Structures are given as structure tokens and as C-alpha cells.
Amino acid sequence: MLSVLTFLPLLVCVLLLALPGSLPDRWCTWTWVATAAVDLALVAVLWAGFEPGGGMQAEQRMRWIPGAGVGYHVGVDGLSLPLLALTCLLFLAAAGYSLRGTRATRAYVCLFLFLQTVCLGVFVALDLILFFVFFDLSIVGMYFVIAGWGHGERARAAALKFFLYTFTGSLALLLGFIGLYLAAEPHTFDLVDLARARPLAGRGGYAALVLLALGVGLAVKTPTVPFHTWLPPAHTEAPAAGSAVLAGVLLKMGTYGFLRIAMPLLPGSWRRYALAIAVVGAVSVVYGALVALAQTDFKRMIAYTSVNHMGYIVLAVGAAGTLAGTDVQARSLAVTGAVVQMVSHGLITGALFLLTGVLYRRGRTYAMDAWSGLAAHTPRFAAVTAVAAFAAVGIPGFSGFVAEFQILTGSLASQAVATAVALLGLLLTAALFLRALRTMFLGTPRLPGSVPVGGPGDLDAREAVPTVTLLAVALVIGVAPRFLLDVVEPAGRTVAELVAR
Amino acid sequence: MTAAAEANENLAALVPELALTGTAVVALVAGSWLPRRRQWIVAVLAAAACGAGLVATAVTTAAGDRQTVFSGTFTVDAATGAGRFTVLGALLLLVAMAVPEIRGHPRETEYHVLLLLTGAGTLVLVGATDLLTLFSGYLLAGIPAYALTGFGKDARGTEAALKYYLMGALLGTTMLAGTALLYAADRTTGYRAAATAADSAPYGLVAVGFVGVLAGLLFKAGAVPAHFWLPDAAAGAPPAVAAYVTTLPKIGALVAGYRLLYEALPAAAGALSVVPAAVAAATMTLGNLAAFFQTEIRRLLAYSAISQVGYLLVPLAVAGRSGLAQQALLLYLAAYAAANLGAFAVLAALPAARGLDDHRGLARRRPVLAAVLVVCLLGLVGTPPTGVFLGKLQVFATAVEGGAGWLAVLAVANTVASLFYYLRWLAPVFAPGEAAAPVNAPAAHGRWPVAAACAAAAVSLALGLAGGAVLPAVQDQLPR
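ok -> C-alpha cells follow
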């Protein structure tokens, strides 16, 4: 089931490549939409059959490279299921958004199908090398998306920077995995076996080095300050669908790695360095918001708010490792909040990036001061963007509020100072989004010269449906979060208990 | 050693080596009588010899028997098997790759005969467990290779051949001197006997002799500081020969070096392993730095080949201290050979394209070649799921396990750095725009190198995806 879900897009990708060259571009995109829809339906089936609190489910385990301790082992639990659903939903939205057409459509579609397999693979993998394979391939796939369909020469530079940075991170991660592998007896890369065996319990220095390698590797991908500098150019230069997938799914691989790998496998070191992790999180929150405040480019600003939003997750996982002055309930609340924040950020920022793509299509520029009074020309676009911006700020009623409330409540007891500092970030995000909305949508109408005669058209169906759908799901989670929390909470409790052992 | 092993003169153990040398002789004679338009028969003979060798190796590997023949001078074991597979497979690809260059050439037969002989020499290096066998392998693999490098009889080829020859002669002498010193110290040239004798032998003599022998092998592999010939040879020789010099000598030299460290010097290896460790560190770093701003593709690939030797030397640096070293070396060698030959096969299919910009827009004109380049170049970086990824994984693991964690960190840093120049090549391939017209003209018989490129890329992927089937074959530890 999980393997079908994961490899279906890749299969379709191979089929598309094998078809003759005369295939119309529209067919390719519609094939992509259909595939993404089928995958989403598969996740829905999986969710329906999922038993909350039942631990790892739909597991599949096969021998792959036994000589190197590598196996094909996949499974899904309360941490990964929401992320699988998020991935499928975002790819469907990206597919719908891409119906308006692009250059070299077939290659574009194939690349995204490949990326979908890779992203799903990361979240189902229960073997460190399998995880790494997908993790690394996501970088390769995204490199080609940015370099091939980004905005010209600058995009290639941004893609190179993205590749070099995240590849460095992934190799640090690989070193950490090797450290875990060699410590286990018999040598294995299997996550479940490693979590059971706890090979590094009581090995202070060695375990700290392994955690450092894992931490750096995952922090680059997340990204946290000071490893975030690849993110703004990559997001800004990528095509809109690429940015949405990059922000919505690829960033989650880093934080998911903390929850899935670093915390259960290295509980002792995680607890020892929890303060440092929480501080990095809080700094990312504030720094990301401050730098976002200084941006004049709408897309770049949103890119920096990703640093801010992902910072909350890092704060939460840090707090979940602090035992002093807290109980398991607060810690599992922090972990649950982290997972909900991943989903929430994926939905809202994904929508925001698609909306920046809409803006770029109209006037070939992201510069905020080039636009003014846009609400008069494009009321629907203004309304949807405003809703997305408020959702990103974290007003009650949207998923962001649920997530950030849980994170801050769960973290306050153990990491009071860091949490207080992070609260500042909420204020800053509100300020920067309000400023952006005012600059672009209110005031006297003024458009950049690059807008074609006849003025900018409003959102059409192919742009509205994907973005509104993403925001609607964020709204549902904000209003009635139980369906999600029922799945996440038991898994969050398990992680909190694993860290405390 | 038992008397039975001493007397073992089983020629059946040497089928691949005999097939190559025997076919070389037959081909030379046949080539003198065949009219030029039928010289392709020689290529078929060469391919058949490689095929026969592969079949024999498969039978030996499947049976899993291990034997030493001719008074312990040559060993057939897991390492020999893996080396034979890699060398013979590589030779097959080289025969296919050379078709556009060689078909109808006045010296077509000579090319194949030289290739078969140097291949046989490489096989001798792979299995040699006696210093004198090792040296004869060195000569047999080297001398035909010098001639092959100058095959085009042009200025660059001649210069490259001369550099290669002089360097080879110099370090060959060093190697022979090292052999003499080791013989003086141990009173034997056999590895097994040397290992037992080494305890009582004067340490200084053993150390100097060892470094002398290793110097010759490092030259063959193209390691720093004996690497200067490699970029010139790769740029001056025809593409297929360039593919040869950056791939095959490494296989022979590195397996031989591993054997030497693991089998002949176990007692002293602990202290002497600092030599391969230092060379590994210098080679991977300098090779990478030099590759950064190369504008000629073959020079870039040559420096990439140098840096790859750095990673390949890591298992030598931890030989005897990590159980993973042998499988890391053998798997990486096979995967590297596939990826590197794939990249060169693309060059052989586009012989006029020498600069990085000549590949501009290749993805639209020749999507298959572009796909092969992606697989092979990202394979050389070590991106999963290619074979080199699995090899690198094993190399990093063996470095950490063998107590050389710093080498693993350095190798990781270098891997990241190497990404830069591989992407410098890949970027124009996918960039819009066109290269100059003559570069695009497909070569005559151009399908052969394309087929070789696809085969190499497929092997590279298969080694990664089906590594589970390959690893057991190379895990069987050497005796010591």
C-alpha cells in the first residue's frame, strides 16, 4: 500500500517519458493532476484505515542490501501520516496551478512526479539509508526545477547554491547515520531496530558528535539560523509551483528528521543539548521575522517567514527534550504542536507562494513598491492573499493558531526565556504581513509598467482552486482540528516518552 | 603453505588472463592477414575474449573457490573475482567506445591487441601475491598503455605518451628498487611468506621498500604526487584511450596496493598506513582543487579521476583495521569504473566537443546522452541510488570504523566541493542555446559509444539498486 502510494508518481513519470514526443502538453499536465489526485485518494484510504495510537502501521520490510545493513523498510505512524497527506495535497495544488502551462511541459511534469515519489519516500522510510536516498534525490530534483524553470541566469546561481548547501547538509547527515550504524551491533541502518537497541546510550562524546552531524544536516534542510542563507535565493528564483513544494514539503524533511531520527535514537544527547536547540529555534523565529521585515520583494519576504515559522518547530523539539520543570503532557503538547505547525506551514506558505506566482504572471515583478491599490483591479486575488497572510500571521480560526498555541504552551514551562523571545516573532510577522498588504493592495492604484495593456486579470479558476483549497484545509484544521490531533497526539506522546527514557 | 598449494599449477584458474593474452597473439597474427575493411573481426575477437573471461570469472565466483597458483605468486579469490569482473566489463565498454575512432583505421588491429595486453597486465596486478609477479604485471599493463596514449600520432598524443612513459619508467625503477629492498629484508618475494618474515625483518628496510613499491602503484592509480601525466594523457589520447587511462590502471593498482598492505605487511601496516592516508588526503583535495576551473572536459574528468583515487585510497589507509575496507574498495572501484566510462563514452559519441560550452543544449539535441551524463556525473558525486553512493557509504563507514574519522570528514568536504565542477558541466547541458555546428554532427558508427554509455549508466544504477546482490561477492575477506 505504502509502496504503491510512494512509487505511483514515479511509475507515471517513466510512462510519460516512454510515450512518443507528439503527446500534447495539456495531456501531460492532466496526467499529473490525475496522478496526484489518485495519490491523495490513496492517502485518504490510508487515513481512514489508520488506527490512532496504534504505532507503526502498514509496515513493509524487505531485504535490499543486507551486506551493508540496508533494508527496504517503510511504515506510517501519526508523525508521518499528516505529512504524507500534506505532500499529496500540495502536489495536487501545484499540478492544478501548472495547468496554465509552462516551458518544456513534459520534462517539468516528469520532474514533479519524480519529486513527489521522493518526498513521499522520505516520510515513509524507516531505514536510514532509504531515508537518505530520498532525502538526497529531493535535492537533485529541486535543483533541476530551479535551474530549469526559474527566472534565468540568477536562478541557475540560486540552484547551485541550494544544491551545494543542502548537499553539504545531507552528507553531514550521512556521517551521522554511519556513526549510528557502526555503533549498533550487529551493524544496521534500520530505524526501528536502532531505536530499540539504543546503541549510543551512555556514550557521551561519540553520541554528541553523531548528534552534531545529524543536527547540522537537518538544520540546513529546515533551515535554521545560521544555515538558512540558501533559502531566500532558492525560493525567490524557483517557479511558483517549485517554491510551494520546496517550502511546503522539502523543508519539512529537516524537522521531520528531528522527530523521526534524532530524538528517538539519541535521547540522552538530545536532552543534554535541548537548551541549545531551543535557543537556535527562538533565534530563527526572531531573526527570520526581522529579516523578512526588511525585504522589499514579496516572494523573498515570504521565504524569510519560512525561517520564522520553521523556528517554532525547532523551539518545540528543543523544549520536548527538556525534562526539568515540565511533565510529559507539556512535552507531548510541544511535539504535537510541531507536527501541526509543519502541516500548517505547508498549507499556508504553499498557498502564499502560488499567489506570488500569480502576481509575477501579471507584472513580471515581485517588488512590493511596484504595486499599489491592486485590490481595485483584482479583488479576488487581494482577498485570497489577505486571507493567506492572516492565516500565516496565526490568527485564530486557521491552522497556524492551533499549531503555534500548542508549541508556545508546551514550551513555556521548560524554556520560558526562549519561548518569550519567540513570542516577539508573532508580533513581527503580523507587522510585516500587514505592511505588505497595505503597500500592494491599498492606496491609489498604481501598476508596474510591465503589466500588459488592459490591466492585470484577476484570479482565474486554475489559480483560485488550488490556493483556496489549501487555505480551506488550513481553515478546517483551525476550526475543527480533532481529526488531525487524534492522529498526531498519540505519536507526539510516544516521541516525548522516547526522549525521556 | 602446504605442499599441495605449492605445487598447484592449475592453468584453469587463469582462464581470463590466458584468454586475453592468447587472443592478443591470435589477433595480431590475424590482423596482419585481414584486409582493412575486415579488421572488425579483430574487435569481435577481443570482445569474445572479454566475454569468455567474464564467463570464467562468473563460474569461479559462483563456485566460491579460492586458490593460489604457481608457488603462491597469483591468487584467485573474491578480490581477484571482483577485479576481473570490473576490468573485463570495462574492456568490453572500451572496445565498443572506440568504434568511431578505430573502425577502418590503418592500425585497428594494433589498438585491440594493445588493449588486450594492457588488460591482461591489469588482471595480473589484481591477482598478484608476489612482488615479482606484481612488477611484471606493472610492466605488462604499462607498456602497451604508453603506446595506446600516443595512438593518434599527433603532437598532444605524443607529448602525453612521452610524459606517461617517462613517469612510468622512473617510478617503475623505484618500484623495482623497493622490491629489492623488501626482498633483502624478508628474504622472500611472496606476500604470505613476507608477512611471517616481517616480524624479524629490519623495520626501516621494510618501510623504505614498501614506500618504493607503493610509489609505482600510486603512479599507476594517478595519485598525488605522481599524477601529472594523467590530465595530459586524458586530453591528448583518443577518447576511448582517455577512458582507459583514467579507469583501468586504477583498478589494478589499488587492488594490488590493498593486497600488499593487507597480506604482505600486516604487522607493519598499522604504522605504515599513514602513507596511504596522507596520499589519500592530498589526492582527493588537490585533484578537486585542480578540477575546479578546467574548461576542457577531458582534463576536468582527469582531475576528477585523480580526486576519486583519493577516496579509493581510504580503504588502503585502514586496511586490516576495518572489516569493511575490502568491500568498500572493490564496490567503489566497480561503481567508479562504470560511472567514469559512461561519462567518457558520451565524449566518444561527441568527439568534436572538447570544451564545456560545446555541450550547451545537449539535453534537447541528444536527450539520451544528457540522461547518461546526469546518471554518470551525479554518480561520480555519489548521489543515490548509483553504485558510487553505496561505495562512498562503505568508504566513509570503513574510515570511521578504522579510526580515520578525519579522512571521512575530509572525504565528505571534498565530495561537496566536487559537486561544483560536475555541475559546471551539467549546467550547460540543460541550458538553452546552441553550441557551434560541427560539434553537433553525429560521428560515424556513433551508435556504438551511445550503447556503451547507456550500458555504463545502467550498470552504475544497477550497482546501487541491486547492491545487495553484489556485496556478498566482494565480502569474502582475503587470507592473511
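Residues 214 and 257 of chain B are 7 Å apart (CA to CA).
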